[in-house]
Specification:
Elements: E1 4-8, E2 12-17, E3 20-25, H1 36-51, E4 57-62, E5 67-69, E6 77-78, E7 81-83, E8 89-90, H2 93-102, E9 107-111, E10 114-116, H3 118-125, E11 128-132, E12 136-138, H4 141-144, H5 151-160, H6 162-171, E13 175-176, H7 177-183, E14 188-190, H8 195-207, H9 211-243, H10 246-256
Parallel strand pairs: 3-4, 4-9, 5-10, 9-11, 10-12, 11-14
Antiparallel strand pairs: 1-2, 2-3, 6-7, 7-8, 12-13
Helix pairs in contact: 1-2, 2-3, 3-5, 5-6
The structure holds o-succinylbenzoyl-N-coenzyme A.
O-succinylbenzoyl-N-coenzyme A binds near residues 74, 141 and 144.
Pathway: Quinol/quinone metabolism; 1,4-dihydroxy-2-naphthoate biosynthesis; 1,4-dihydroxy-2-naphthoate from chorismate: step 6/7; Quinol/quinone metabolism; menaquinone biosynthesis
Family: Belongs to the enoyl-CoA hydratase/isomerase family. MenB subfamily.
Function: Converts o-succinylbenzoyl-CoA (OSB-CoA) to 1,4-dihydroxy-2-naphthoyl-CoA (DHNA-CoA).
Length: about 270
């Protein structure tokens, strides 16, 4: 594939091919476990992808064939969170989860190998998941003294059902890609050597679709699960559209021209 680097980072790769961005966790020596730095780099790369109008679809993956992500790097876990260079304990992966949810473009997780712990929650919050046949999914929190009681539990229950979600967390079992597919946890499974081509082909299919339609579908589905925060995103999208209408512009123009607005000229559809 013909990827070009958008920006250099220490812990991630940030690349682009046409309108598709790819963000790869680049710590294969620890199965792509993340530190506060890894997460802050991902937050920046996702923010750039959100703001760049030439990017329409984002792929999140891990470098190498052995792991998508094995969660928080336990070697830097301190009192109250994961410790970076500033010595402040953080759980900044929660900010990244929210960003992936609100970014108004499809985000695809491309999973090869381990998708475990907080890494598996990242996979979960992506809009779609394309897995290689060597992918393995699971949560380890109750084994290693951690848990994600936010999206990692509540949203998981929405996606695979309460009984299965409780099994995932209470038993800490590992599930094959095929088992994950049968649970509705992921979208498809393909042979490892085809996973990138398949992911690109799904991305290219979405590039042919109306971006505003995809944006509203994503926001609507998330509003259902994210409560008022989800509704805020959906409402913001509606406001953005309203600003582009003559009716919206009339209000602003009337104010600036110090006259009464003439809203009568606009149709009132049933
Ligand atoms: C993935 C596993 C099952 C793979 O096993 P395998 O193939 O036998 O490989 P290993 O030899 O174990 O691993 C290879 C090398 O990679 C290191 N490594 C792997 N995972 C991690 C990790 N997460 N942190 C640090 N190092 C890791 C190994 O140590 C080994 O290194 P060497 O060769 O030097 O020995 C297996 O590796 C495994 O079980 N990994 C740990 C998975 C895990 O428990 N992850 C953490 C789970 N918790 C979170 O992710 C919390 C996320 C979070 O931030 C959060 C979010 C919301 C709310 C709360 C939290 C919270 O912190 O609790």
């Amino acid at each position: 594939m013909n990827w070009t680097t958008i920006k250099e980072y220490q812990d991630i790769l940030f690349e682009k091919q046409g309108a598709i961005a790819k963000i790869s966790i680049n710590r294969p020596q620890v199965h792509n476990a993340f530190t506060p730095l890894t997460v802050s780099e991902m937050i920046e790369a996702f923010t750039i992808s959100r703001d760049d109008a030439s990017i329409s679809v984002i792929i999140l993956t891990g470098e190498g064939d052995k792991a998508f992500c094995s969660g928080g790097d336990q070697s830097v876990r301190g009192n109250g969170g994961y410790i970076g260079e500033d010595n402040i304990p953080r759980l900044n992966v929660l900010d990244l989860q929210r960003l992936i949810r609100v970014i108004p473009k499809p985000v695809i997780a491309m999973v090869k190998g381990w998708s475990i712990g907080g890494g598996n929650v990242l996979q979960l919050v992506c809009d779609l998941t394309i897995a290689a046949d060597n992918a393995v999914f699971g949560q380890t929190g109750p084994n290693v003294g951690s848990f994600d009681a936010g999206y990692g539990s509540g949203y998981l229950a929405r996606v695979i059902g309460h009984k299965k979600a409780k099994e995932v967390w209470f038993m800490c079992k590992q599930y094959s890609a095929q088992e994950a597919l049968e649970m509705g946890w992921i979208n498809t499974v393909v042979p490892l050597d085809q996973v990138e081509a398949e992911t690109i082909s799904w991305a290219e299919e979405m590039l042919k679709k109306s971006p505003t339609a995809l944006r509203f579908i994503k926001a609507a589905m998330n509003a259902d699960t994210d409560g008022l925060a989800g509704l805020q995103q959906f409402a913001g999208d509606a406001t953005m559209l309203y600003y582009t209408t003559d009716e919206g512009k009339e209000g602003k123009n009337a104010f600036l021209e110090k006259r009464e607005p003439d809203f009568d000229q606009f149709p009132k559809f049933p």
